[in-house]
Design brief:
Elements lengths: L11 E2 L14 E4 L3 E15 L5 E3 L7 E4 L6 E12 L2 E10 L2 E6 L3 E2 L12 E4 L2 E4 L2 H19 L5 E2 L1 H17 L11 H8 L6 E9 L4 H14 L7 H7 L5 E9 L2 E9 L5
Parallel strand pairs: 1-13, 12-14
Antiparallel strand pairs: 2-3, 3-6, 3-9, 4-5, 6-7, 7-8, 10-11, 13-15, 14-15
Helix pairs in contact: 1-4, 2-3
Organism: Secundilactobacillus hailunensis
Keywords: Signal
Pfam family, one: CAP
């Protein structure tokens, strides 16, 4: 979703997650001339529906729409994953069910349970028997590279890192979304804007937030998350992409934290013009 704050900018929501895979099961692959699907079974997990009007498909080929999530309630059970590659772009979809009915949905519209804050960054990640620490600097640098690549292609000037915004707003927001994944507080106030005002910064600010599973590869988690922001955002009216490309913004702060198998990312864009 995206909301305007005085100009064509504002917070946009993107949630990305995955299921715990069942060990020992062999993934399957289907392909057509334009679509390739890589399936993987998983243990059954209950998820909360984040977007009621999200499109539900009858299969992972995404050719037939069954309707939206309004008819499935607030909780669904996921039991299959599919990495779907169409026209060179890959996205993750989940198969879910409620009773005897179900379908396939883009992973960003489901959230696994509630989570509490733990110390980020220094928490080790186990990968193939080895302990790997999460490197926030590497992940955030890759996000900046991807942002500016797309801005240049679109004719917008590259953004520069705003360290003040990072210290006073964005790094705080990254820790906050671990336990409350939202742009808004309980009074429906835009949190980033409130923090900026409190710290004496420009309230002309936009925000993207996301979380994505982390397997120890910092560049990959940044690439996959950005792919969701930029290429799979139609249901949010391309709000994330608009924030990334907004020519009125010339500064950015990016913060990413690791928690319990996921990387939580926040991008805040602002302008030195203060408009």
């Amino acid at each position: 979703m995206a909301k305007n704050f005085g100009r064509k900018t504002g917070p946009a929501l993107f949630a990305a997650l995955t299921f715990a895979l069942t060990a020992g099961l062999v993934p399957a692959t289907q392909a057509t001339a334009k679509t390739k699907i890589h399936y993987q079974k998983m243990t059954a997990v209950t998820f909360t529906v984040l977007k009621k009007n999200a499109t539900v498909y009858s299969s992972a080929f995404l050719t037939h729409k069954k309707g939206n999530m309004k008819s499935f309630g607030n909780k669904v059970t996921g039991y299959n994953t599919a990495r779907v590659t169409k026209n060179g772009k890959t996205a993750l979809y989940y198969q879910f069910k409620v009773g005897k009915k179900g379908g396939w949905i883009w992973h960003g519209y489901l959230k696994k349970g509630s989570q509490s804050i733990k110390k980020p960054v220094t928490q080790p990640v186990t990968k193939q028997g080895q302990s790997v620490k999460f490197n926030e600097g590497k992940v955030d640098a890759r996000f900046l590279e991807l942002i500016n690549q797309q801005r240049v292609k679109a004719g917008s000037k590259p953004v520069k890192v705003d360290q003040n915004l990072f210290n006073k707003v964005t790094t705080i927001r990254a820790h906050q979304i671990v336990s409350r994944f939202s742009h808004y507080d309980s009074h429906r106030k835009f949190i980033a804007e409130g923090l900026a005002k409190k710290k004496g910064l420009s309230p002309h600010i936009s925000e993207n937030i996301a979380y994505y599973p982390y397997d120890g590869e910092g560049t990959k988690v940044a690439d996959d998350t950005f792919n969701g922001y930029f290429y799979h955002d139609a249901d949010s009216n391309w709000g994330h992409r608009d924030n990334i490309l907004d020519p009125s913004m010339n500064r950015v702060a990016i913060a990413s934290v690791y928690h319990d198998g996921y990387v939580y990312n926040v991008m805040n864009f602002t302008s030195t013009d203060g408009k």
